[in-house]
Design a protein that fits this description.
Distance between the termini: 39 Å
Strand order of the largest sheet: 1-5
Radius of gyration: 17 Å
Shape: globular
Helix content: 25-40%
Number of helices: 3
Oligomer: single chain
Number of domains: 1
Largest sheet: 2 strands, parallel
């Protein structure tokens, strides 16, 4: 409904839907993300994002495809570094979506393809400001009630201490 409303209000706008990706607590040197959020795998949520985008004629900035974690306070909320990592992934994913043959409307009616922004030193589009590689270390069907899951009182578990 939200995407449909955006497309109705701004039919010429290029609308991007961004996939979800794992966070990693600042200072932790290994993946710790719980991939089963409320009993659903992170990639199921991303499939729903891709499906909704396709159904409404929107683009997908697939940050999950990079296979990286972002730096976070506690597995979910990004730190300053995590925001730069996430932003650099979003910019690069948008560039890739644009270069995939999808036209970008402009105010002049001309299509444009985004180019790498080398002028912005805060963003590194090559290694995403040092974002570490993601890895799923546990294949349990759910994290709810698992003794290795942090924040067991919360169904949106994001840290596995296994």
């Amino acid at each position: 409904t939200m995407l449909r409303n955006i497309r109705t209000a701004a039919p010429k706008a290029a609308v991007y839907c961004i996939t979800l990706l794992p966070g990693r607590t600042h200072g932790v040197d290994h993946p710790e993300f719980c991939y089963r959020l409320r009993g659903r795998h992170l990639d199921e949520y991303n499939a729903a994002i891709r499906d909704a985008a396709a159904a409404e004629g929107c683009r997908v900035a697939d940050v999950r495809a990079f296979g990286r974690d972002y730096d976070s306070l506690e597995g979910t909320h990004p730190t300053n570094l995590g925001m730069r990592q996430f932003a650099s992934m979003v910019v690069r994913a948008m560039q890739l979506a644009d270069s995939a043959g999808v036209e970008t409307p402009t105010t002049e009616g001309i299509t444009a393809v985004a180019q790498p922004d080398a002028a912005n030193p805060a963003l590194d589009l090559r290694d995403f400001c040092g974002a570490p590689k993601s890895a799923q270390l546990c294949d349990s069907p759910t994290c709810i009630g698992c003794p290795h899951a942090a924040n067991t009182g919360n169904q949106w578990l994001c840290r596995c201490l296994k």
